[in-house]
Specification:
By secondary structure, the chain is an alpha+beta fold. Among the domains are: 126 residues, Uridine Diphospho-n-acetylenolpyruvylglucosamine Reductase, domain 3 (2-Layer Sandwich); 83 residues, Uridine Diphospho-n-acetylenolpyruvylglucosamine Reductase, domain 1 (Alpha-Beta Complex). It contains eight helices and 18 strands. It has a five-stranded antiparallel beta sheet. A four-stranded mixed beta sheet has the order 1-2-5-3, covered by helices on one side. The longest helix is centred in the C-terminal third of the chain and has 19 residues. The protein is globular and about 55 Å long. The two termini are 15 Å apart.
Amino acid sequence: MKEDNVIEKIIQKAEEYGCDVLPNEELSKHTTFKIGGPCKAFISINGSECLKELIQFADDKEYPYFVMGKGSNLLFDDRGFNGVIFHLGSDFSSISMIDETTIKAEAGCSLMNVCRFAYENGLGGLEFAFGIPGSVGGAVYMNAGAYGGEIKDVLVSAKAINKGKVLEFNADDMDLSYRHSIFQKNGFIVTEAVFKLFKSEKSEIKALMDDYLNRRKNKQPLEYPNGGSTFKRPTGQFAGKLIEDSGLRGFCVGNAEISNKHCGFVINKGNATFKDVTELIKKVQETVEEKTGYFLECEVEIVKYDQGKA
């Protein structure tokens, strides 16, 4: 089947499921970096059966696709993505109680909403995640964390799609470590997660959530488009401090800049390009390694034009 016919068939199947479809959509509209050209189609998934069928079809036809959530840890090519984007967003974001201390959430649900749901039900344990601008799927995929807490601390299990089948993983089977999970290696698509929390006073939960959110506002460059922490933290060190000690605070490539507010963030000062950001990341890695001996691994996922899972 020709490429044009494949994307037409994918769009047709998505519309039959009632999904919103945006052909040739600019990806800069859907990432916190505000960078990225058009994809062939941007499809908002509205259920696991739909996602399962579309992924199976794309795999069978060897058609490139990429699955994304809130777009908070992604950098897309200025040329865009030569394939289809399956978006897990508000149409794939239900939250429910399994028992009095256990929450189930679909992959497209924002972490902020899961935290609010926990608070409303008097459940503690997720306060550290309040303010992380990602989705449940992305949080499980990268074992997101902040302020001493990680998703692995509260994660019980997750469901994921592979080759048209929905599989369930216990937390112990997900190879969860610092900003890492098994899903980064096996390419399975997380569709749902279950979190085990604990009963707590709502006033205490709110106080912690407010404290963490205020810390973010005071210390992170939230006033500029960015992809979150750009680099992973080396063992026993802090990426931001290593960058600052290497004399790179405020260093720019084009309109991409090492934030003066927090050196661990690359920010888009205005119309920064994919090339600006990737060249800045490379410069930081080379300079920090030369001056300190530490190589900073990139935490932001970089998606090139011809990259795809199929």
